[in-house]
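USER: Fancy drafting a protein?

ASSISTANT:
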Amino acid sequence: MTSLNNVLSLPRPLGDGLLLRRAASADTEAVADLNGRILADPDESPQILADWTRDLMSGRHPTTAVEDFIVVEDTHTGQIVSSMVLIPQVWRYEDIPFGVGRPELVVTDPAYRRRGLVRAIFEAIHTLSASQGHSVQGITGIPWFYRQFGYEYALPLGGARHLNLTDVPDLKDGESEPFQIRPANAADIPILMELYERQCAGRLVTTQIDENRWHYDLNGHSQDSIQKLCVNCILNSEGRVIGYYSTSAHPWHERLIVWEVVVAEGISLHAVLPTVTRALKMQAQAYQPQAGIEPKPITTLRFSLGLEHPVYETLAAKLGPFQKPYAWYIRVADLPGFIRHIAPVLEKRLAGSVMSGYSGELKISFFRDGLRLAFEQGRLVEAVHWSPPDSDHHWDGAEFPPLVFLQLLFGHRSLDELCYAFPDCYADEEPTLLLKALFPKRVSLVFPLG
């Protein structure tokens, strides 16, 4: 830990008796109290944030430890006044895995705000993330704020449609459920992993969820943590698992959030959904809030299944209007390095395009800096930082406002959409063909592991 502290330049005085340092186990209750007190919504129990914090600091989490928290201590009082955690995970760009650090639980006591504490913590968090081999950082956070720290909205987050509980079909008299529902357990993990990969198929960026993470999601979260999931298996008449669905254990604004609904190949989702929605309705009606929270009946199922999902099509007549997704903030500190990492995907795309076998350069300006990609017979042979010309004379290439290129890289927006939205986004004829071949718009499915 000492050598890493040296890399992070921690502990480090920030002035006025404030000390930036990595957390220790003794800080757990102070950090949990700070997160619960400041981050909980008015209609939420502080315990759901506090228990999540305790879980992350407990040593039981599959990727996160107490040392992944960076805190600011007021040494005059011993109080923890600002904090953030890095939650490591692995995502995939098509079939290429890459390390991701997720900064979370970003908090500062109101009495200590506007002193640059979050910026100081971010510097340490980014260094910590790089030390763990992460090429990308991703945040699910409040509007605009994280743009200050090198982040750009570049992947969809959420997207949902709603089903009123009153529209869930009842069983007819004398009818029995054609499918059965039961809680998932550790023995189900192999089939759950197989089904999870089925829903990832065809998506550009996906979250890699290994066996350890499945064990944790089934049995590791504290009961009152905001991250607690309910995972249920769908069984056919023979008792075989043919699908699963997952929900948040705790509702959000009188809505039960459904994160996943997956069935095996050859199984009719249309046939399964009536049983699933009835089980979800029973779950919603049985929910009891934490002590001290006013009970409010859950009235709606929120199918938060992303930009597109077969459930939206199957239940279209009963669902409310589509609620467009928010977005992940994404940061890529070494853009050329990431491009080189995903080169096999880019080369495959190029080979299947009108630019197959291309030899030459693609120069991309971000105005203050840029990126140069060199190809030989369709192979990426170089991806490096590049300085665009100082003058405003024409050159054959492409231009993007700073960080906007990340939207193209991660398939969030097409080149045409970016050129329409940003007057300072431009590409010449050949660069246009290359960019459209290399970076098409694609749907992603990225779960924020916490």
About this structure: The two ends are 23 Å apart (CA to CA). The longest helix spans residues 269-286. The longest strand covers residues 79-93.
